[in-house]
């Protein structure tokens, strides 16, 4: 019923303009549409995601969105680029993964986590 339909990630934020500065200025996304001061729409690869104003912004403590970036070394390259842009990475105690700097690895896979200004947990992963 839904398996052949596109899904859209929804990221709750307190201030769409402030979030837009992060998603556009730091992460490099181009805004596709705006719905007043309530929603900003972005395209990422063949999908899209919406950043929307919500009183519940910052309440999700789990990973909200993941980018599959290709080979494991691509995770390291992107993490270094993001760090140079001021992104602070999250460090977790995950016994199944080995951390080297800001990047975790296990069985040929690499990943790193960071947050947007509202605390949404975002991740890059080799895949």
Automatic annotation (TrEMBL):
Q: Which InterPro entries match?
A: Glyas_Bleomycin-R_OHBP_Dase, Glyas_Fos-R_dOase_dom, VOC_core
Residue stretches making up the VOC domain: 4-127
Any matching Pfam family: Glyoxalase
Protein name as annotated: VOC family protein
